[in-house]
Amino acid sequence: MTTFPSPRFLRAAVFAAFASAFAPVAIAAQDAVPTRVVVRVVSNDAKIIGSGVGGARVMIRDGLTGQILASGLQEGGTGDTEAILGPRPREGGVFDTEGAAAFRATLDLTGPTMVTVEAEGPLQPDHALQHASTSMLLVPGHHVEGDGVILTLHGFSVEVVEAPATAQAGSAVPVRAKVTMLCGCPTEPGGRWDSDRYTLLLSLMQGDRVVAQGTLAYAGETSHYDGEVMVPADLAPGDYSVRVVAVDGERSNAGMTLQPIRIER
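Predicted structure:
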């Protein structure tokens, strides 16, 4: 009488043979593969955020666990103006020019990995940080180079360069402000970064409340703008602030700064 193996035995035998045949592949798949990644942080409607304004901080995280895979500073130059602002070829080469700032990392990947790439900058003191992030899949051995992963920060760098620390009620407060792109690129009327497009707002603030408004106009020096705001004669003495806001709504850029001022009788 002929006997046959039980179905359970056959399933076990097939599974064992399958596992044995593919065991080397499974082990190899766990080997870490060095994978290069380039990240570039750029100013919207302008150039790369380079060392001149402190650079930008970059972090690459595992998209599932949040583990930091790489972090560091983007350092270098702002890139080639004509390449960045001129017609852009589809094949790239816009930001990947000699001396252009970038953050470079080599990740040891054991398999396709979803990551989150984050950036903040510019890191120049007293400038408001802007943030950006994106998610993408990295595949072991498939390097992300050339222009790399592009993160765009929107806004202007705005700072008050001249303003009195105190002022009298009923007096005019003169203010000089500096407005540049986040990469430090200059602004001026009719220039490559044309400030004729911008709305420049000057305000005297009590907390979040506007107590007086003034105007700013080009000061005749690149990126500098002069104006004044009149302190109401009946304004109570105390601590206030001068606020400068620059807006280019069409290009999705805006920036703001606050400067403390003491109002006295």
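Summary: The longest strand covers residues 253-264.
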